[in-house]
Each structure stands twice: as C-alpha cells, then as structure tokens.
C-alpha cells in the first residue's frame, strides 16, 4: 500500500555575530580551546543576568522578511526547561508563543519544472547549547563538555508539515541556505555545525486529503549535517514506518538519530511535547514592542535575493533561465559576473572597443567562461577577463622571446616575492604580474604573463 509522507523541517542557523546572544563573550567557537569563550552568563552561574544582542535580533527579523514572514509587533523570550549536560542553566532561553516572525512562505522548484509553495510556521531566536565531546581518557570512554558554543545566537526556522518527498525537502533546505548566505548573517556551513537540520516524518493514509487531520504520531530525526543524509534519513524512515503500519502498528512517537555509516536511523528517546518543557516568560528580559516599525527600517537594507536576481539577469542580460540560476546560486559569483559586464559595457560606451551588436555575444562568452569554470574568480579579476575577451592583450604584445627575457629579469630582481609565492603566498603572484605590466607600460596581456610567471616559478621551485 502506498502512503503519503508528511514531512516538517526544523533548521537551526548559528548567526555570525561577534558576541553571544546574552553576553559579551566571542561567539566564534570553531577550533578554539575548550571553555575559553565563557563567562558567568553563558555558564549559567547564580546571579548572572542576560542582556539581549540587538544585532542578532535584527538579523532574525531580516531572515523573517526574506522568507516572507509576518513580523510580530510584540515578541518575547521564554524559558524552555529541560535537563541535559550541555545546558548549564537547566533551561534554554528560547521563544514559544510570541516569536519574532510567523506565517512565512517559500517557493521551491521541483525536478519536473513545477514549483511548490511551502509555508513557514515561525522564525524565532534562541541561544545555542554547549557541545558534548565523546573521547577516551586512560582507556575509559568519557564525555566532556565544551561551553564555548553555549549562548551563541541561534535562529530556528520551522516549516509547516507539508513537504511530501525527500526531493522537496532537499530543494527547500538548499533554498533556505542560499537565502541566508545572501543575507550574509551566517555561513550555513553544515560541516562546522553552523547549520543543523532536523526532520519530522510521518505517513498518512492514501485517502488523506488536505482537509484530513495529520497522522497521530510523528518521528523526529535530529542533528543531520548534510542534504544527502537528509534524503537518506527520510527514505529510510518512510520504509521503516511503512513496514510497521502494514503490520497494523503505529510507529512510536520518538526522537531518533541517523547513522551516516549504515544509512539508518536509531532510537534515542521518546519525543517530548511542548508542555513537557514547562515554557514560561523569561523574567529577566522585558517583552519587545513596536517591532513592525523596526521591520520597516530593515526592509530598506534587505539585499536583492536570488529569485529577484535571476529574473533581473534574464531581463537585463538576456540570459537563459538555467544560466541565470547557476550564476545567482553564489552571491560572489553573481557579483563577479555583473562587474565583468559593467566593464564590458564601459569599454563600449567610452572607447568604442566593441560594437553594439557584439555586446550580447560577449555577455554570453562571459557567462560560459564562468559557468564552465574556464576562469577562477578568485584568481582572475573581471577587468582581466574582459581584456582577454576583447583581445586587447594582443595589441602591441611583445613577442614571446622578448617577454620571457623580461619576466626572467623581473623574477631575478624580486627573489623575495618568488620565495613568498613558492611558500604559499598567492598575493606575491599579482605583485610580479604588476611589475611586468609596469615595464610593458600596460601593453601586455596579464593572463598570458601570469601563466608564464607561474610556469617559470614552478620550474625554478626547489
């Protein structure tokens, strides 16, 4: 019998603020000595009082606006009570019934070129927990606690349970990651744990309609750290739950982990309900009011988001939709493309280097070179790319023999820069290219010169 998967997603995103959510400790905790970024507040010592981080609140609202949420005019923090070793206070400062953002939505694209709108229940702000480190000491298995992460600003994005396949889940997650990276409020690096994923899964009867109630259970799979593993965990749970239901059993409502090595979920504990956490308003932090006024100011600094950028690239530059999506996928790559096009258009308007009829073709050339990775935006400046496309480099270019002799002399005169480059300092290469270009009075091709310098320095490398 076929069943309809009912999937809800919870995304936790660590914000890249300089300080933690409720204290002045540095929020950066990666590759830092354990328990060195702590204070009485984030360690939960008696008498310590929290002071909210305004930047983190602004960024939470910004995420809410980017996800088409309603900004609540009044919000507050609450205490979420539970006992776990990585929670020093015995409760987490989070949000319950009055979050900062509600009722958002996100349009996702599916493989068959169709789209689907996924509603977002809420976007709220909380503090992160400490980190458990499992290790061996003197041959004994131990669990240590690092509180450097405790108190780091954490935004939670909760979808409605209306995703129905692993493919839809991955599309939704990728788009959320892309939008947050565009906002530059988090790097969303799942490998480091700055973006963590949790999946709620249940199976509905084939007769289920939109008007029907949701299944009477749900299974939560926590702390998944890649899109691929999300898809695997969902697929495994669908099959596991289907086997139970076919036998007349209702799956246990529980929290499960995911074992990446064997591709299976495993039971951790029975899933708590909201009343188990005994939420109550945080008494040390007053409620926030007039947030809609604040949100209007934030709207003015909201950057152009991927979907808007794609539409503009298609309209302004005549790009194919597929190419526009690839370029807009990474904000830095998109900026590199636009800067290259601006330089190209400037060459047309001021120097008449390119005929108007050639502009569209040159834009296609720029697009193809970036998409097909024929150039590296980290190594080649937009002006160099355009110069190569316009063949400026070949105007008054010295012959190869003369050019090689000149480069050898420059390398000999700048031995320290050569040593720096061979020692891993890549900026030394740009310095050497500049020295050769200065000798040629700007008439050389920087890309050709760069390749010749690299080749000569590799030959001379000890």
Quick summary:
The protein has 462 residues and is of the alpha+beta class. 38% of the residues lie in helices and 21% in strands. The strands form three sheets. Strands 2-5-6-9-1-10-11-12-13 form a nine-stranded mixed β-sheet. A three-stranded antiparallel β-sheet has the order 4-3-14, with no helix packed on it. Strands 7-8 form a two-stranded antiparallel ribbon.
Description:
- With 462 residues, the chain is α+β, with helices and mostly antiparallel strands.
- The chain has 3 domains: 4-299, no CATH class; 306-390; 400-460, Arc Repressor Mutant, subunit A (Orthogonal Bundle).
- The protein is 38% helix and 21% strand.
- It is built from 13 helices and 14 strands.
- It has helices at residues 54-66, 166-183, 227-246, 291-299, 306-317, 321-329, 331-351, 356-371, 382-389, 400-413, 415-422, 427-439, 446-460; strands at residues 4-14, 70-71, 78-81, 91-94, 101-109, 115-127, 131-137, 140-146, 153-159, 195-204, 219-224, 254-259, 264-270, 280-281.
- The strands form 3 sheets. It has a 9-stranded mixed beta sheet. Strands 4-3-14 form a 3-stranded antiparallel beta sheet, with no helix packed on it. A two-stranded antiparallel sheet has the order 7-8.
- Strand 12 and strand 13 (264-270) form a beta hairpin.
- Helix 5 (306-317) crosses helix 6.
- The longest helix has 21 residues, at 331-351.
- The chain is globular and about 80 Å long.
- The model is unreliable at 392-396 (pLDDT under 50).
